[in-house]
Write a structure and sequence with these properties.
By secondary structure, the chain is mainly α. The protein has 19 helices and five strands. It is globular, with a radius of gyration of 22 Å. The protein binds heme C (HEC) (2 copies).
Length: 427
């Protein structure tokens, strides 16, 4: 997959035009988002931050998607259930068996109607032909009646051993998962409905439910989906004001940065539209680290990305183009968080192979965990694996110089919405 360089980019970057006319996409409006119901959002808000959903009651969704870390966890690769603390303070005890294999992504704008897949490899997606309406790793066991991708997503970590469910023998949730994935959900529902304040919230969200026993996992995860889809909408950053034709003071670096983003840097070709993603998958030859998302027949720690979903060799090491919003708050970057700084991430794009070869491991933000560290750099130290990764690359060197990269970073600040982060932190 090579990128075809679009010719029209030079046309709209004309300094004589008012600034608002320069953006090659229409402003986001509220109707671009899926509708959500306020009562469901309130139920979802509480569930999202509650450890009751995890097997051993020691981790919530928010542990890995925290407002203090731009709805991520501030780590390259996080630690799932059993670890303690939040963000960079999180510590692994000796019971932790491995790191979470991928970087915890931010949750901004997932309720936008243009989003048709989630996860770094897109392994959940909307599929009108599937009986449940979605493709997911839960396959035929995915409950019917889930109303959004975010709701589908919310049903999955609950049953994942290292994320939330816990280890065999530790609790009744993982016990049920071991028999069949869909046996676990009623066990979790049982816990939640036993609490009177939850039953009150559930009744408010779903007045049609007569008694507690009528509650189904979809009632809970649809509410979490509504919460994600409404709470994390980000469309009031300076870039959005520009797109609406409002006046925004741009520095000359930001102007230059915008020109580079949509021109020489080719950024806008993959990070396109108001969400800054075309929703497709490319390999940037990112430095491998961590336990990987090993497939059954993989003999060692590796992460082949999209290929793990499609089994198509062209998709090897390709990952979904992330939407770019509030980047100042969402470090580290990339599917495994290999880069702690935006500069590092953009320098990597600028010359992927060279950056891979010269990668400095100190950029990784990994909680200290001596007993699981041995696996972290197995892929990186394997010359043949590195060769395969290099061969997969979809991006040719961009030829940006140091000051051009700085200008792009200045431009990207226009995508930050600190007021939203503030609001999320105060909730
Ligand atoms: C242990 C950390 C952890 C916990 C707990 C966790 N997540 Fe995540 N989440 C991740 C990681 C890592 C990914 C990316 C995985 C991948 O792409 O393979 C992710 C992906 C997602 C995505 C997809 C975002 C996108 O743009 O593709 C959503 C939505 C999400 N999580 C919501 C939740 C919800 C809801 C819960 C609670 C039910 C939850 N997460 C619990 C770490 C976590
Ligand atoms: C070929 C398509 C493509 C082009 C062109 C491109 N990117 Fe990316 N970008 C990606 C993909 C794919 C990822 C995720 C790669 C991974 O993690 O393996 C990514 C990741 C990022 C991230 C990390 C975001 C996060 O939340 O982790 C930033 C920032 C970024 N790109 C900025 C840029 C900038 C700035 C440019 C222009 C200099 C650019 N990109 C050009 C495809 C592209």
């Amino acid at each position: 997959m090579q990128i075809v360089k679009a010719k029209f980019f030079t046309i709209f970057i004309l300094f004589s035009l008012p600034v608002s006319a320069q953006l090659p996409w229409p402003p986001i409006v509220i109707d671009d988002y899926l509708t959500t119901r306020p009562e469901a959002v309130e139920l979802g808000r509480k569930l999202f931050a509650d450890e009751i959903l995890s097997g051993n009651k020691n981790i919530s969704c928010q542990t890995c998607h925290h407002p203090d870390f731009g709805t991520g966890d501030g780590l390259s690769l996080g630690l799932g259930e059993g670890a303690m603390g939040i963000g960079t303070e999180r510590i692994a005890n000796s019971g932790i068996k491995k790191r979470v294999p991928r970087h915890s992504p931010h949750l901004f704008n997932l309720g936008h109607k243009s989003i048709t897949a989630q996860f770094w490899d897109g392994r959940i997606s909307i599929d009108p032909d599937a009986p449940s309406g979605f493709n997911s790793p839960a396959e035929a066991w995915l409950p019917h009646g889930l109303k959004s991708l975010s709701a589908v997503q919310a049903t999955l970590p609950l049953t994942a051993q290292f994320e939330m469910a816990g280890n065999t023998g530790e609790n009744e949730v993982i016990g049920a998962v071991r028999q069949r994935i869909d046996y676990a959900w009623p066990v979790i529902v049982e816990r939640v409905i036993a609490e009177d304040n939850y039953w009150a919230l559930i009744k408010a969200a779903y007045p049609e439910l007569q008694n507690r026993r009528d509650t189904h996992i979809t009632h809970l995860t649809n509410a979490i989906g509504d919460y994600i889809n409404s709470e994390f909408r980000s469309f009031n950053a300076p870039i959005d004001k520009l797109s609406r034709g409002e006046s925004v003071d741009l520095t000359s670096d930001q102007r230059q940065g915008m020109e580079l983003f949509y021109g020489k840097g080719q950024c806008g070709e993959c990070h396109s539209g108001p969400l800054f993603s075309d929703g497709k998958f490319y390999s940037l030859a990112m430095p491998p680290m961590g336990p990987g998302r090993t497939r059954q027949w993989d003999p060692w720690a590796r992460d082949v990305g999209r290929m793990g979903v499609t089994n198509n060799a062209d998709d090897a090491y390709a990952f979904r183009v992330p939407t770019l919003r509030n980047l100042s708050f969402t470090s580290p970057y990339g599917h495994n968080g290999a880069y702690a700084s935006l500069k590092g991430m953009i320098q990597h794009h600028n010359n992927p192979i060279q950056a891979l070869e010269n990668y400095d491991r100190k950029q990784a933000v990994l909680p200290n965990a001596p007993h699981i560290e041995v696996i972290d750099w197995i892929g990186f130290n394997d010359k043949r694996e590195l060769e395969r990764i290099k061969r997969s690359v979809d991006l040719k060197p961009l030829g940006l110089n140091e000051s051009e990269i700085e200008q792009i970073i200045e431009f990207l600040k226009l995508l930050d919405e600190p007021e939203l982060i503030d609001k999320l932190q105060k909730r």
